[in-house]
Amino acid sequence: MNLAAALSEQATLEGVQWLLRSLGPRRALREQLQALLPAPALLGPCRLRQVSFKPGRKLTAHWDALVRMADTEGHRARAVAVTWRLDGDADRRPEGTDPARVQTEALHRGVAAPFRRLTADLPAWGMRIQVSPLDARFPQLVRLSDPRYARDMLAGAGGGASRQPRPRSYTVRSIRYHPGKRHVLRYDLCDAITPETVFAKLYTGEEGARAFCVARQAADWLAVHGGGVTAARPLAWVAQDGVVLYPGVVGIPLSESLYRPGQRVARCVERAGAALHALHRLPPAVAGPLPHHDFAAEVRKAADASGHIPVLLPSVRGAIGALLERAEHVWATPGGATLIDFDGCRLADPAYDVGRFLAYLLLWHVIHDRPGLTEAQDRFLVGYAPGAPGERLLRSRLYEAVQLVKIVRRVPLAHPEWVALTEQVIRRAQTVLHGLERRLGVPTSPLTVVMEGDPLPPRSGTCRPGCARIQSVGE
């Protein structure tokens, strides 16, 4: 196996997993990370979190590297992004501030420690490593990762709720580190009588200001019309740092609650449907002018997001293309416009949100091999359906099928059951669309004609937790 074959447009799943899991590439990665540290013994285990693949272009993996800190006896997770590119592409750099300048500031502020450098290139492997908080496109990430700067920024923005006297100090932890794309930091107040947590979400340009305004309007609307369901109201928009501050919310994510199905969880899913229906009644004028998002655009996004799957899994190549084409034929004229989320808000058919939630419920149950999908989806629709037009619910099933093609990329490429899980999700998408076609009286083709290959073998065991999450409104 070699790099060119692993990343080419004719790549195989074995080639991608070779880069992620085999001894040679893993050893090369560890050696490069160790070279960035003053002592190799400081580097502990490295845990793979997320992978994305663009055939013929690049493979990107996000890791948590456990690093021993000088002031502690244990290890602390440090976010690392690793990109493999084909020859000739290794020198690409995202637009933004000079990376050397960003690294110098990180060293000066002490937020690089214990790393001596935050980036490394290994041309022989087409590999580039970036360690948080390095990002030339988001240079503010460095200063926002500095506990001293964070303390002053939170004090000036009113981001902390505590009334304790100063001086106050915060620990800073990276929740999401995707260089060139997005970042989320977590601030926890040290030695506080009452725990206090603030989350910081970074932006470029004017996106943050718009997201802040929409999130506040949506939270205010739900406070009145949400039937007991609320949204985290942002604390502040700090323009000079391009960051929106959110309060910490105590609770358990819905995706984790699904492990313990019961009436309490069923009511929670039902209330999520009710809250979404309330958001769909939020007048667009309240949130200000927003761009539009239509069904054709969603189909294009689904095709792009799943572009690596036909390459790595030829058995579903015809299935994905036919499914998206059939979806466009089934599509009817969209209904009224509404908000679909807080951060990337668009004016769109409200059926989009319903279908997206249904799709994430299905994906979670498939990946974790858990029963109860039908019950969870039904309870969500019970909460959403009162007053909702019947045709909207039909369109939501169409969006569900398209969303499944789009979000199937969330099945981890390094997972040993990637083939079986991916095929199962695509089959489920076909089943959803086939059922909708029959209900609408649209001519359909047998599912066996669309999907190539033999029936799926029985699955054994369960998948590791954390492979997927339920995408909720506002995320």
How would you describe the overall organization of this protein?
The chain is of the alpha+beta class. It folds into three domains: 3-137, no CATH class; 146-251, Phosphorylase Kinase, domain 1 (2-Layer Sandwich); 254-450, Aminoglycoside 3'-phosphotransferase, Chain: A, domain 2. The protein contains 18 helices and twelve strands. It has a five-stranded antiparallel beta sheet with strand order 1-2-3-5-4, with helices on one face. Helix 11 (295-305) runs antiparallel to helix 13 (317-330) and helix 13 runs parallel beside helix 17. It is globular.
Q: What is the CA-based Rg, rounded?
A: 23 Å
**Beta-strand percentage range:** 15-25%
Order of helices and strands: HHHEEEHEEHHEEEHEEHHHHHHEEHHHHH
Shape estimate: globular
Alpha-beta content class: alpha+beta
The chain-level mean pLDDT equals: 83
Helix content: 40-55%
> Uncertain spans, ≥5 residues at pLDDT below 50?
332-341, 446-475
CATH architecture of the largest domain: Alpha-Beta Complex
Widest sheet: strand ordering: 1-2-3-5-4
Q: What name goes with the CATH superfamily of the largest domain?
A: Aminoglycoside phosphotransferase (APH), C-terminal lobe
Number of strands: 12
Per CATH, the class of the largest domain reads Alpha Beta
> Helical segment tally?
18
CATH topology of the largest domain: Aminoglycoside 3'-phosphotransferase, Chain: A, domain 2
Number of domains: 3
Give the CA-CA distance, first to last residue: 39 Å
